[in-house]
Design a protein that fits this description.
Blueprint (H helix, E strand, L loop, with lengths): L5 E5 L6 H12 L3 E3 H9 L3 H24 L6 E3 L8 H10 E7 L2 H8 L12 H19 L2 E4 L5 H17 L4
Parallel strand pairs: 1-3, 1-4, 2-3, 4-5
Helix pairs in contact: 1-7, 2-3, 5-6
Length: about 180
């Protein structure tokens, strides 16, 4: 596939955005970027540290700055943070500047994939309940922003990559959005 534009991956934590993104970028010969990595690069601090010192709102301000930059960087694969869609400006940038793929994952899959990680929003006695709440709040935003929705439950990375390539190729031909 000759990528006509950037592909932006959105979805909840544990949906596979970074894993799928890296594989998709390699397959398409594009650069892979991660918005959380860019936030850390801009601030010199880790995401957990930013949440601790600035709170979620302060982190989201820095995330918005990173997304403004990254979404203008040309053809690439970009994995966004799970909460990137919370701000209307981010949703607009993503949907207008590239092809947005919503990677879905059940709460059980998210819980399994995030087990043992240091995710600020999962610092709770009941991570499953927190994931369910976040998904209920964000799913409508993911769906409203995405050009395509791809389920990652029980799917191998290569299969997900193939699905994304097929759907984006059809879209570029104008046969399916």
């Amino acid at each position: 596939m000759a990528a006509a534009n950037a592909i932006f991956l959105i979805g909840p934590m544990g949906s596979g955005k970074s894993t799928v993104g890296a594989s998709l970028a390699q397959r398409l010969g594009l650069d892979f970027r991660d918005s959380d990595d860019r936030v850390e690069g801009l601030t010199g601090a880790t995401i957990p540290s930013l949440f601790e010192t600035l709170g979620e709102a302060g982190f989201r301000d820095r995330e918005e700055t990173a997304l403004e930059e990254l979404t203008q960087a040309g053809p690439m694969i970009l994995a966004t943070g799970g909460g990137a869609v919370l701000r209307p400006a981010n949703r607009g940038r993503l949907s207008e500047r590239g092809t947005v793929i919503y990677l879905t994952a059940s709460v059980a899959t998210q819980l399994e994939r995030t087990r043992g990680s240091d995710r600020p929003l999962l610092r709770t006695d009941d991570p499953a309940a927190r994931l369910a709440t976040l998904l209920a709040e964000r799913d409508p935003l993911y769906r409203a922003t995405a050009h395509h929705v791809v389920d990652t439950d029980d799917a191998a990375t290569e299969s997900i990559v193939e699905t994304i390539i097929e759907r984006t190729e059809r879209s570029h031909r104008g046969t399916n959005r």
